[in-house]
Specification:
The complex is a heterodimer.
Chain A: E1 4-7, E2 10-14, E3 19-25, E4 30-38, E5 45-51, E6 56-59, E7 62-67, E8 72-77, E9 86-94, E10 101-103, E11 107-112
Chain B: E1 4-7, E2 10-13, E3 18-25, E4 31-37, E5 44-50, E6 53-57, E7 64-70, E8 73-79, E9 87-94, E10 104-105, E11 109-113
Parallel strand pairs in B: 2-11
Antiparallel strand pairs in B: 1-3, 3-8, 4-5, 4-9, 5-6, 7-8, 9-10, 9-11
The chains are: A mainly beta, B mainly beta.
Chain lengths: 113, 114
């Protein structure tokens, strides 16, 4: 089955700096890669996603890049703000067989004012 | 309506109790999911319903019993739970199961088993 590795597990940045979270996946058939943000005590919320036919996608301060050859994808947050502090989960969806999301272990991002 | 709702928000139950968790969506989604999430861990898939039929059961103990009465509703019946079952139970839905569609999560039910 699919295996998703996520790094780092914790990340502290100064407000205004950029944050980068990296994930690797194992199943070359995976074709959909969402990123979820989960604030303490709240539901995971989709913040951005990318499909395997696209190399990069951007939404205001958030961007995701995908390297299918290397089987890794990354989340980039620019001009970080204190409200970006949360746990971020990457996930990979395998379109062959399992038809389910496999999550990374999460990254706790702290933005220091 | 673009939201998944869950009731109750919090539930405390003893090991001999029977209770149910409820999930509802009105987005016309045909796939619905139950996840279990322990503190500081990612969501862990329990069950998947596709077109109201159970399509995935991730080796979940029989003390958890899912039910999908119709395309908008998903229940999780709980019986004889153990303290280690205490967790946040999340419901999610997506347009379909096979298309890599976005999964939208409900707010969860915080379950405590005494």
């Amino acid at each position: 089955g699919e295996n998703v590795e996520q790094h780092p597990s914790t990340l502290s940045v100064q407000e205004g700096d950029s944050a980068v979270i990296k994930c690797t996946y194992s199943d070359s058939a995976s074709n959909y890669f969402p990123w979820y943000k989960q604030e303490l005590g709240k539901r995971p919320q989709l913040i951005i996603d990318i499909r395997s036919n696209v190399g990069e996608k951007k939404d205001q301060r958030i961007a995701v890049t995908l390297n299918k050859t290397a089987k890794h994808f990354s989340l980039h947050i620019t001009e970080t703000q204190p409200e970006d502090s949360a746990v971020y989960f990457c996930a990979a969806y395998s379109g062959a067989g399992s038809y389910q999301l496999t999550f990374g272990k999460g990254t706790k991002l702290s933005v220091i004012p | 309506d673009t939201e998944v709702t869950q009731t109750p928000k919090h539930l405390v139950m003893g090991m001999t109790n029977k209770k149910s968790l409820k999930c509802e969506q009105h987005m016309g989604h045909r796939a619905m999911y139950w996840y279990k999430q322990k503190a500081k861990k990612p969501p862990e898939l329990m069950f998947v319903y596709s077109y109201e039929k159970l399509s995935i059961n991730e080796s979940v103990p029989s003390r958890f019993s899912p039910e999908c009465p119709n395309s908008s509703l998903l229940n999780l019946h709980l019986h004889a739970l153990q303290p280690e079952d205490s967790a946040l139970y999340l419901c999610a839905s997506s347009h379909s199961r096979t298309g890599g569609d976005t999964q939208y999560f409900g707010p969860g039910t915080r379950l405590t088993v005494l």
